[in-house]
TrEMBL record:
<feature type="domain" description="HTH araC/xylS-type">
    <location>
        <begin position="212"/>
        <end position="310"/>
    </location>
</feature>
<dbReference type="InterPro" id="IPR009057">
    <property type="entry name" value="Homeodomain-like_sf"/>
</dbReference>
<dbReference type="Pfam" id="PF02311">
    <property type="entry name" value="AraC_binding"/>
</dbReference>
<dbReference type="GO" id="GO:0043565">
    <property type="term" value="F:sequence-specific DNA binding"/>
</dbReference>
<dbReference type="InterPro" id="IPR003313">
    <property type="entry name" value="AraC-bd"/>
</dbReference>
<dbReference type="Pfam" id="PF12833">
    <property type="entry name" value="HTH_18"/>
</dbReference>
<keyword id="KW-0804">Transcription</keyword>
<dbReference type="InterPro" id="IPR018060">
    <property type="entry name" value="HTH_AraC"/>
</dbReference>
<keyword id="KW-0238">DNA-binding</keyword>
<dbReference type="InterPro" id="IPR037923">
    <property type="entry name" value="HTH-like"/>
</dbReference>
<protein>
    <submittedName>
        <fullName>Helix-turn-helix domain-containing protein</fullName>
    </submittedName>
</protein>
<dbReference type="GO" id="GO:0003700">
    <property type="term" value="F:DNA-binding transcription factor activity"/>
</dbReference>
<keyword id="KW-0805">Transcription regulation</keyword>
Length: 313
């Protein structure tokens, strides 16, 4: 079965599932399973703004929202900062001053300050995004470069180093910034932004890869049970090589990602249907209800019934 057939079947299947749920959209701005976010404290922002080097460009907040179902954020009067949104999986939309753009995997957008905007995740194929807010005396120069070089072609080839730089920058921002780290933060940020704006991918047409196809296969067969060897065979890799590539691409081990998909679907069943925990268990291919409940609590931090009570629509 080729890649496009897998994606077509997955999209058809996923739409059918989501349409069959009695859904009233529960919009949320944050609080996703596995998320990470860093808000730079005011005292550290002051340090960044006063340092001769970092004052030219610095981060005020950054984060990662995986499989962010129902993610929705609207700012009527815009933000004080520039906002970078980088979609690594799934899809969503970004609306700036009434103009809506579709955000798909490996695309990015920069929202300028002071402009009304609204963005959110697809209900049928929720996005996973990295994001950051940045400002500084040279922030407008960066945005002008974005308008010149990347606005009309905002696709970037997936690069694990870019993801690592996001993580390192968040680690750095969580530290007590001394003068050395202030300047490291500036160098890291300008390097990270450069991987987007000056990626040199103009005219590039993305080629599907086996890990993308594997993720689509998981979503298509979310009710089934598989071993990691099954996924590796489907992707034409050894188990060790497949696991390495999958973790680089998604940040998760393959079976961990597959279980997260199942638990995210279980959350929807608990919130939007009257199915019992046992029925949901069976629906998602779990034979042992107690194992399912332990896994659900491990991933969401709440037992299934407690989650339902707090999130029932």
């Amino acid at each position: 079965m080729d890649y496009l057939t897998i994606l077509y079947q997955f999209n058809t299947y996923w739409i059918a599932i989501m349409d069959n749920l009695t859904m009233v959209t529960n919009k949320v701005s944050e609080g996703f399973i596995g998320q990470r976010s860093v808000l730079v404290p005011t005292n550290n922002q002051s340090k960044l703004a006063l340092n001769p080097l970092s004052s030219m460009l610095y981060v005020t907040a950054a984060g990662y929202y995986p499989l962010a179902l129902n993610h929705d954020r609207e700012r009527t009067y815009g933000s004080e900062d520039y906002i970078l949104i980088y979609c690594v999986d799934g899809s969503g939309w970004i609306e700036i001053d009434g103009v809506r753009n579709i955000a798909e995997a490996n695309t990015f957008y920069i929202i300028p300050p002071g402009q009304r905007h609204h963005y959110g995740s697809s209900g049928k194929n929720p996005w996973s995004i990295y994001w950051l807010h940045f400002t500084g005396s040279n922030a407008a120069v960066i945005y002008n470069s974005y308008e010149s070089f990347a606005l009309k072609n905002n696709y970037v080839v997936y690069n694990q180093n870019r993801i690592d730089e996001f993580s390192y920058l968040m680690d750095l921002l969580e530290s007590d910034l001394n003068p050395y780290f202030l300047e490291v933060a500036y160098v890291k940020l300008i390097g990270l932004l450069g991987t987007f704006i000056f990626a040199g991918d103009a005219g590039y047409t993305p080629e599907p890869d086996s890990i993308d196809a594997s993720v689509a296969f998981m979503k298509l067969h979310i009710k089934s049970n598989f071993l990691i060897s099954d996924f590796a065979r489907q992707a034409n890799y050894s188990v060790s090589r497949y696991s390495e590539l999958f973790r680089q691409r998604t940040g998760y081990a393959p079976m961990q990602y597959f279980n997260h998909l199942k638990i995210h679907m279980a959350c929807q069943y608990l919130s939007f249907t009257s199915m019992s925990v046992k029925q949901i268990c069976n629906e998602l291919g779990y034979d042992d209800q107690y194992y399912f409940s332990r896994l659900f609590k491990k991933i969401t931090t709440h037992p299934p019934l407690k989650y339902r009570k707090a999130n029932k629509i």
